């Protein structure tokens, strides 16, 4: 019951984000709103599939990755959004800090493989690597003042928090299967939902600058 | 037991003749309808194979395996057309749509033969629902294929992301229409609603 309630909150927040993006897209006709709208819409679809499956069949899908495909598509749209808002300079690979990202994502991938299947964990690790890399590269560029738009800072931070929350949720779900309100899993899920509400205002700032 | 190959031959035969007798745009449209039907046939084979390997029931296969397989198989001929023939954008978008219509038509005919043709109202709703769903999914994917991204790899990423969106959308549709009563009717009306909203957004955007 609690998991359905938490999923419902996420459905509402992602739907609100999608509607807001559609509204701004109609007003501004900017490509960035299409990408953020698709990111939240596809996350909404993944949640909706999971929710409907749990309501009608009382369990998570067993044979397929359909909801996870939705979530992974969301990460891809975040990556495309970062490439849309950042300046045209190529991604750096000379900063040593950035090489900790694949170490982290693949380290966590190996850890999660103890509980989950191999393919989805590898796909998630690659996508998260790319999103983290592009996102942190943008943040470092703002900090070093290399011409990156300072108005992008908020959207970079929110996407970074979103990704870190995803990792926190995956890690907690490995250890705790208790469906109680005291489980930090639910708090992280709610925070993840809230991040979808913060994204439109951050993108608006970035687009208007 | 439904002999899907026989249905395909019966449906495709007049279209093949028509394709041979026509030229230009008409031939391309008819060819892509046949390709869509063939993609539907192939995806039913692959879905059945994966379901048998994984030991899934028919219901589980239609909910969890079919959306995945159908959307990927539907994309393959379009990808081939885009990469090898390199058509104009408007031709490619139209071909993508025709392929989806062929796919939905063949699927509807198979459904009719399996479940009977007694309830006209239900068949009308199902016909429009499934048809619109395949067109909506094809439009989503063609948006990724034809949209001008900054670079090739961004176009690839965009297409994969939109294909994933189409798979999830298809999955949600299949779950709803597999139920009875209100959830099924909601499921059948979702694609029409999506098509209407996207039409309004497109009109306003242009």
Description of the molecule:
- The complex is a heterodimer of chains A (209) and B (206).
- Chain A has helices at 2-28, 31-57, 66-85, 100-112, 118-144, 153-175, 184-208.
- Chain A contains 7 helices and no strands.
- The mean pLDDT of chain A is 87.
- Helix content of chain A is 78%, strand content 0%.
- Chain A has one domain: Rhopdopsin 7-helix transmembrane proteins.
- Chain A has 209 residues and is mainly alpha-helical.
- Chain A is globular, with a radius of gyration of 17 Å.
- With 206 residues, chain B is mainly α.
- Chain B has one domain (4-205).
- Helices cover 88% and strands 0% of the residues of chain B.
- In chain B, helix 3 (58-85) packs across helix 5, helix 3 packs antiparallel against helix 6 (152-177) and helix 5 runs parallel beside helix 7 (182-205).
- The chains are: A mainly alpha (209), B mainly alpha (206).
- Chain A binds chain B through residues 22, 25-26, 29, 38, 41-42, 45-46, 48-49, 52-53, 56, 61-67, 69-70, 72-73, 76-77, 79-80, 83-84, and chain B through 51, 54, 56, 60-61, 63-65, 67-68, 149-150, 154, 157-158, 160-162, 164-165, 167-169, 171-172, 175-176, 179, 183, 201, 204-205.
| Low-confidence sequence ranges of chain A | none
Rg of Cα set of chain A: 17 Å
Largest sheet composition of chain B: none
- According to DSSP, the number of beta strands of chain B is 0
Give the proportion of residues in helices of chain B: over 70%
Strand content of chain A: under 5%
Task: Give me the Rg of chain B, rounded.
Answer: 17 Å
Largest interface comes to:
A-B, 31 and 32 residues
Task: Spell out the blueprint of helices and strands.
The complex is a heterodimer of chains A (209) and B (206).
Chain A: H1 2-28, H2 31-57, H3 66-85, H4 100-112, H5 118-144, H6 153-175, H7 184-208
Chain B: H1 4-21, H2 24-54, H3 58-85, H4 89-115, H5 120-146, H6 152-177, H7 182-205
Helix pairs in contact in B: 1-2, 2-3, 2-4, 3-4, 3-5, 3-6, 4-5, 5-6, 5-7, 6-7
